[in-house]
Amino acid sequence: MMQKRKNISWFLGTLLMMVSVFLGATEAYALPVTGIVDEADEKSIRGWALNPSDPLAAVEVKVVILNQTSGQVAAELYTTASQHREDLAAQGTGTGDYGFEITVPWETYGNGAYLVEAYAAGQKLSGTKVHGVGVTVPVTTLRSLGTFRTTAYCPCRQCSGKWGGRTSTGTVATANHTISVDPRVIPYGTRLMIGGVIYTAEDCGGGVKGRHIDIFFNTHGESRNYGSRSAEVYLVP
Ligand SMILES: [Zn+2]
């Protein structure tokens, strides 16, 4: 009799464990949030966001505005995606009540080019926009290539050996411009935006393999300060 009871509690314990593992797994496979930043103009930022796991709930959206030159965050604005969008309803996207529009006090951020990104449930929506304040920037949508490991180098012997400031494509390495890449992953001549700065892939290095980008700095101190960071990389058309 004792033996049997022991077996039952063992069975219940195992069952509980399996259920919690299963629940953990379902959470990991939660459907990703979908949505996009459609437009950023001098008045507002517009887009939509939907959580397919809970299509009747309005999603909280965080809009992040970054200075394209410095990479600094100019503002984080919050709104709820609950406006009716006939285009979404017409294409069969749930109720269609997933639109958002947020007024932006651009004039308070100062002149410059700004990147507009939006997040919902901790995930980035597609469609990064560029908006200029007092400057003209081409209206483009930057495509994210995802996260890369980024490191830094300089012309010193320790970083560049006998190459110095010369790149493998024959150019003179320039700060805020030159990056070293694995040309099998990023072809030479590709323009990438990292941390708000637009770089050109024009160098390679023995230690730069796969999804790794080495950023050129003028001095060893600056490159040492940069260290190693994971960064989202955008393809600039
Ligand atoms: Zn160095």
- Assess the beta-strand content as a share of residues: 35-45%
User: What's the number of helices?
Assistant: 4
- CATH fold category name of the largest domain: Immunoglobulin-like
Q: From the 3D coordinates, which CATH architecture of the largest domain would you assign?
A: Sandwich
Shape: elongated
Mean pLDDT score = 85
The biggest beta sheet reads: 6 strands, mixed, barrel
Describe what you observe in this structure.
The protein is an alpha+beta fold. The protein folds into two domains: 34-136, Immunoglobulin-like (Sandwich), CATH 2.60.40; 145-235, RlpA-like domain (Barwin-like endoglucanases), CATH 2.40.40. The chain is 18% helix and 39% strand. It contains four helices and 14 strands. It has helices at residues 2-28, 86-90, 157-160, 220-226; strands at residues 34-40, 44-50, 59-67, 73-81, 99-103, 112-120, 123-124, 128-133, 141-153, 178-180, 191-194, 197-203, 212-216, 229-235. The strands form two sheets. It has a six-stranded mixed barrel. It is elongated. It starts with a helix and ends with a strand. The structure holds zinc ion. Zinc ion (ZN) binds next to helix 3 and helix 4.
